[in-house]
Structures are given as C-alpha cells and as structure tokens.
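Progress narrative, work stream C.
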Amino acid sequence: MGSAQLGDKTLIDTLLPALDAYNIALSQDASFEHALRAMSQAAEAGKESTKNLQARLGRSARLGVRSIGVLDAGATSCWLILRSMSDSIERHLATTKRPGI
C-alpha cells in the first residue's frame, strides 16, 4: 500500500532484514528454529538501525532532523511482534518435540 523502502525509518527497516535473514537461513538448510533466531536477530538489528536515520515517511517525517537519535515506533513495534512470535514458536516446538524426530 505504501511506498516505504529500507532506510525510510519505518517498520520496513525491521521487516525486510528479518524476512531476508529467515529466507537465507532456510535456503542454507538451517533448521526452522535457527531460521527463527536469525529472523529475530535481524529484526532487532533493523530496529536499532532506525535510531540513526532521519524519518522520511509517516507521522515522524514532520520532525525532520529531530527524528535522528530516536528509534522508530513502527520498527520497534514490528520487532516486538516478530520477537514474541519467534520466542513463542520456539517454546512451543521445544515442548512438543518427540525423541527421534
């Protein structure tokens, strides 16, 4: 719907690295759990990258240079959702694994 791209200081700065890390891990025959961890780590790095960016889209764009030094709210929210999802899935898988599978 939107035109946000990597570096615009939006949730895309969290989501795209997370998706890329997940897909790369799976393409390298990593386990699902490893792919989830890679996704979560990349999402966190993407979120952190927004701190040094100037917002170009969204409501924070009106802040201009004052947006530099502050994490993007959308990127942070996206990271929280992805991390929570990853942690929950990993916990569920750990409790449902059967020996030999």
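Work stream C, second folded protein:
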Amino acid sequence: MSEINNVVIVGSGPAGWTAAVYAARAGFAPLVLAGELEAGGALMTTTEVENFPGFPEGIMGPDLMAKMQEQAERFGARVEYEDATELELAGEVKTIRTAYGEYRARAVILALGSAHRRLGVPGEEEFAAKGVSYCATCDGFFFKDKEIVVVGGGDSAVTEALFLARFGSAVHVVHRRDELRASKVLAERLLAEEKVQMHWNSKVVELKGGDVLEAAVLEDTTTGERAELPVSGLFVAIGHDPRTAVLGGQVALDDAGHIRVEEPSTRTSIPGVFAAGDVVDRTYRQAITAAAAGCRAALDAQAYLAS
C-alpha cells in the first residue's frame, strides 16, 4: 500500500465521521479506519438518541452512525473496517499499520474515543442497552418514574445521580466505601436529595432480569452479605479510559490519559496529527461535542495540508 493519503482518520464515532464529511467535501478523499469489531464507537450500544439536533423524533444510535457514514461516503470518504495496531507519527508522512497492512498519510486525525469502565459482573453485557447504561444524559429520560441504581462515588457518579433524580422515582447510589470521593459541594447536594438512597460499603455483583434488567444484587463489602434490589435501570459511572494505548507514548497526554491539544485548535504535540472526540474530551463526552470537534480537526488538517 504505497499510496500516500492526504488524511487518514483513525476511529469512526461522531468525531471521526464528521471529520470525514468535512475532509471529503474539501476534496481530500480521506480514508477512515473504522475498526473491525467496534466501528461506530460508543453510540453503537446506545438505544434512542433524542438530544442530537435534527432528529426531533429521536434516532437509534447505530442508525445515526450509519447516516453519518453514508454522508461521508457520499462526498468521497473511503472506509476500511480495520483496527490501527501501530502508528508512526513523526515526519511528514505518517504510517498506520493494521492486521492487514499499512497506510500512509500526510495528516492523521485521531478519533479513537474512550471506553467506559465496566463492572465486569454477570449480566452486565446481557442487559447493555436493556437497562444498563453508561450515560445518564443519553438515557435518563427512559427511566421516568422508575427505580434506578448509580454505581460510583466520584464527581461523575454524583452528577449523574443528581441528573437522574429528575426522572426516577428513586435513585440508589452504590459505593464500595463509606464516604464519597466527589467534591464536597456535590456530595452535600447528593445527600440532601430526597430521592437518593445511599448504599455504603456495597458493590454490585450480579444483574438479573428477563428481556430487560429487573434487579441488581448488592454485596456488603464488610460482611459479604448479599441482597437483591429491584430496579429498572443501572448506570455505571466509575470512569472512562481514553483509547490511547496504540499511540505508544508518541503524543503528549494529560494526567488522565487524554490527548493534549493546542486549544482552541485540535493540533497535538506532533505536526500533522490532530485529535478530536472523547479521546480528548474529559468533560462533556457527548455525541454533538464530539462531532463539533471532528469538524474542527478536519479544518485544522485542511489548513495544515494547504501550508
């Protein structure tokens, strides 16, 4: 594969496909390495998306990704369903290797995304998108007047629990310690919320149900005693891991492992390499903010290539 591409986009979530749309419309015929098993990113495991502009009736996550891909390909983007396994990003021509070969490019856009940390308990995979969620903003509305569990004790978990209290009849916060790790202001706000019930020194060890989630099994971390908690929704908020292992330390990262960019641009520490989406964003992690960053990355790459 001796051809040198103008732009190779690694990743195919909202950031990757939006970057592809913009780069393709600019005439750069970008190549998208969409991934072999996880093409489409986190939205592929999301049910109905109701907060993405332009879809007043809502749209299923996989359908939204399919439309983005269709739009990018319409303008000339090319797609390979391969995972990047090794990258050489220094120099004017970059090399991206996969299990099937290698690709070269003058500019690379990293839209690698992030992975939700999972509980790793029986039933978690079975009830994904059937009661188990990793995004309260995305799915909270679907649990109106139902009992909900939030797992975690940091700022993210507390923020999600407070948000879900707007919808659920009760919110059970399960934390393996006897005090929250969240900031004092957030912790006080959570403990004052009348819909919230704390389960201290507890962890979820199993999820049960039929077609959808019906109960979470909690275990006391001090006594080992187990109890079944009937719930309709369970939100896991124990952190995210940006998918940066493949970079091999070539690109500067922040203290949480996200790629550093030269805000407000998407330039990384390596000329000709840009980053967008959840692999950069440690704050918002929404489809619309990822898409916006993908647009910026494509424009930055266009300016770099023009220079």
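The chain has six helices and 19 strands. No further action is required on this item.
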